[in-house]
Structure to design on (348 residues):
């Protein structure tokens, strides 16, 4: 049995096949500028033919870089965070980097464990959506990092990127008013989450500008999940109400759960209950009726976060918050009450 068939090809195998020295082959594969194009092409063909792959661990030990980045998001099952991860992965790959993705499940202890794992893996830097809003011990990370998400706004001295929540909520509220829904109900996140406060602050400002008392608006909170929205909608429907019900949910998962609760109550969306979501996840398009929503730029957030992280790694950061604008996606889950219903004429 030929044992050479079972061993990993080395740089010596590449050099012999290309007819160059070991050092020339190494420089060509590293992208060195002092290698002519013909030689570089010959070495690359030899590497492909032999199946050679560079030892990135060894390269990283010499350069101080691993070529790996970390991403810690709160809920990998939420399609919005999947979009963020996809954008980050694509941008990292463009620069030859790999991305390690962890989900904290909204658990601060898990988040701390994941950050420790990334540090031990010697990643070049990490992108983190801090689930703990009192994230004051970030100096312990020991690696370059940027923040994403609403909690990041508290840290002006740290590079971060996220949706413009104020712009997004105003966009949604203005659209509701244009459709005749001036005093909607709300399904929001847990009281412990800063995202909830950001959302409600924008709602309050909008109401004050339109001379609406925010205290009259019905509100239920819950987890940012389908079941959280479903239970919150059930509680809203149990409240006394007259006429049409309109609900603004703080994320699309909640909105989809609310639509389920409406059907379970024997009601119709949007004839009896209008619902608007927040995030712009793809599944909203396939709901019936389609979910009207304020779409966050998830993929673009991932891209910009990686670009910010590269700046941190290269020691050229411009600390501050990047606010990404959101957009309205109008589908069928909102009734238009701005147009009077046609009068029915009794047959003579």
């Amino acid at each position: 049995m030929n044992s050479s068939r079972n061993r990993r090809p080395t740089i010596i195998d590449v050099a012999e096949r290309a007819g160059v020295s070991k050092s020339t082959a190494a420089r060509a594969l590293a992208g060195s500028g002092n290698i002519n194009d013909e030689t570089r092409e010959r070495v690359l063909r030899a590497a492909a033919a032999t199946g050679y792959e560079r030892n990135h661990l060894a390269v990283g030990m010499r350069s101080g870089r691993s070529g790996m980045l970390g991403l810690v998001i709160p809920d990998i099952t939420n399609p919005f965070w999947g979009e963020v991860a996809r954008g980050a992965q694509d941008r990292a790959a463009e620069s030859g980097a790999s991305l390690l993705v962890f989900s904290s499940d909204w658990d601060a202890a898990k988040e701390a464990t994941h950050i420790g794992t990334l540090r031990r893996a010697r990643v070049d830097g990490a992108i983190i959506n801090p689930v703990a809003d009192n994230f004051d011990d970030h100096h312990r990370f020991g690696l370059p990092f940027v923040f994403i998400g609403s909690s990041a706004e508290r840290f002006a001295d740290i590079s971060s990127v996220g949706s413009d929540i104020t712009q997004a909520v105003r966009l949604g509220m203005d659209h509701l008013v244009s459709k005749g829904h001036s005093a909607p109900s709300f399904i929001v996140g847990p009281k412990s989450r800063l995202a909830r406060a950001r959302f409600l602050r924008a709602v309050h400002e909008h109401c004050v500008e339109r001379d609406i008392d925010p205290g009259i608006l019905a509100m239920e909170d819950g987890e940012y999940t389908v079941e959280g929205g479903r239970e919150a909608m059930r509680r809203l429907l149990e409240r006394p109400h007259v006429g049409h019900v309109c609900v603004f949910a703080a994320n699309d998962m909640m909105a989809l759960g609310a639509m389920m609760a409406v059907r379970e109550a024997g009601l119709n969306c949007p004839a009896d209950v209008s619902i608007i979501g927040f995030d712009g996840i793809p599944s909203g398009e396939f709901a019936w009726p389609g979910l009207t929503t304020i779409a966050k730029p998830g993929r673009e957030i991932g891209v910009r976060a990686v670009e910010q992280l590269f700046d941190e790694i290269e020691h050229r950061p411009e600390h501050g918050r990047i606010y990404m604008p959101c957009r309205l996606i109008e589908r069928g889950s909102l009734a238009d009450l701005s147009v009077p219903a046609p009068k029915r004429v009794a047959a003579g």
Q: What stands out?
A: The chain has three domains: 3-54, 66-162+299-324, 165-297. Residues 1-5 have pLDDT under 50 and may be disordered. The chain is about 40% helix and 15% strand.
